[in-house]
Amino acid sequence: MVAMAISQSLSFNPFKVSVRRGVAVAYVPPPPPPSRVRYRFASRRRLNSEAASASASHFHIYRFDRFVRRCWIADTEVVNHVGAEEEVQEDILAVEIECPVPIVHLNSDILQTDSLTLLTEGTYIDCLLTTLPVLSEEEQNALAATPAHPDGLYALYACCLAGNLVEQLWSFAWPSAIALLHPSLLPVAVMGFFTKLAIIIGGPVVGKLMDHSPRVPAYMCLNSVQAAAQLLSAAMIIRAYTVLPTSASSVLLRPWFIVLVLAGAIERLSGVALGVAMERDWVVLLAGINRPIALAQANAVLNRIDLLCEIAGTSLFGILLSKYEPVTCLKFAAGSIFWSLPVMIILSWLTNRVSTGVLDRAKCSQSCCKMSNEAPLLDDDSIADVGFEAIKLGWKEYMQQPALPASLAYVLLCFNVVLGPGSLMTAFLTQRGLNPSIIGGFSGLCAFMGVAATFLSANLVRRFGILKAGAVGLTLQASLLTMAVAVYWSGFLSQKSPLFLFLCLIVLSRLGHMSYDVVGAQILQTGIPSSKANLIGTTEISVASLAECVMLGVAIIANDVSHFGVLATLSLLSVVGAAWMFCLWLLNPTDEQRSLFSFDPLT
């Protein structure tokens, strides 16, 4: 705002100046988007006005021109007005028709010598520089902790709650029902083996398909496929209870068991793809990849939802199984799966709707999309060739990722198939004669330790840093599992008290395991680009499934319950190896890893 003393009225449109006799106030509006051509053209027209014929008038116009330039200096680039005559003339001809600029003629008696004394040399620019908004450290932290799409995150949490509750209930239902059919680990181990084998082969293929498919339609399709596979599996197990019981080896050749294995493989492959899409892609977009605190909080909430669903699902089915027949419980699980499907589809659509369509953005970078255009995903080549190329690309990208040691430590943890709440542990405890409600309580306590780990991991990261927090979690898990295996080999596991101590040590070890799981997820989110998140994520799950597949193959060979100690010892060695590898990585990082993560092993 500038006050000028003048002697006559003047109406000035470009700057909206309304001047009357006496004192007038000039308001300079915000300028349009910066343009070199517009600015140079306007300056040219002012400098070539008729007032240039009089030297006194030229002096005042020059002063007013300096005033205009300083009023616009915040939104324009500094341009040298003493350019070549031909270049300026070309600019005039290019924009004269589309960008007319009004010409203002000023008389020398309007502007006095002291009219612009408020804008002395550097005053306006200094004022601009001192009033630029600069965020304080507290404001920057608050911005980093604010999700980019909070409403979308809440809808995502609700969608995960509905999906994970049914998935965790079914993950506990099918091994319990099969273990009650046959007193052997063989059926459960065989089904788990082929499930992991399907993930190894199909994981990279599904990941590549998801990287080249719209997010929301792909999520809805996979949800439908997973629900159909779960319903078919429930029907096959119910069918098994209606036929005469046979030996464990003959069960493997039954038609219902073959269909059950195929349906279980499809169900797990769909579930893995859905989990990778949620944890590696959707949550990053909704929380904001440049908002680390909000992303860490969203990861913690997703982990808590998953673990709370595990507590609720396993406990609920365990209580039902202790009171009702297995067929009745399986029908309840099938009904829950059927009615949860439309809820998840609606919530996934709502997630994209309330986040202003952020999930509709293209996933691939320009280079990735260019490669996709040059080599279409589905062309005249056979499906086998496309799948082989996807697997090869997935393994190549996986081995080249900067966070490979952290991922390999996670893979080693997956060799632990018995010292945790899984299908083999459920079958082992069922054949030990424990009440199903106690077995469900054991799985629920393991999940509760995971919930506590989401809070513990935040304190560990704050105190030790993200990488050292992972090392602490792995060391804690290895120590507690060593004690658990020692209790098992003590020979007193046939008694209830040593058995409960064995289970309690496994429950406590989940605190370290889930702490590393939370920390490792953020390490991989930091080191993997978003355009390759699904491909690398599903490939990592495939590698982890390969580790589990090897251990399940050992379980198939040693399927008797008396060989459980051998499986427990092998699982312990894998956890110790994971802790050793991760700590070795902290001591010998590469230059690329140093640029992505903070390494300071001495503090």
TrEMBL record:
It is found in: Membrane. SUPFAM superfamilies: MFS general substrate transporter. It holds the Pfam family FPN1. Keywords: Ion transport, Membrane, Transmembrane, Transmembrane helix, Transport. One of its GO terms (molecular function) is iron ion transmembrane transporter activity. CDD domains: MFS_SLC40A1_like (cd17480). PANTHER family: SOLUTE CARRIER FAMILY 40 MEMBER, SOLUTE CARRIER FAMILY 40 MEMBER 3, CHLOROPLASTIC. This is Solute carrier family 40 member. It comes from Dipteronia dyeriana.
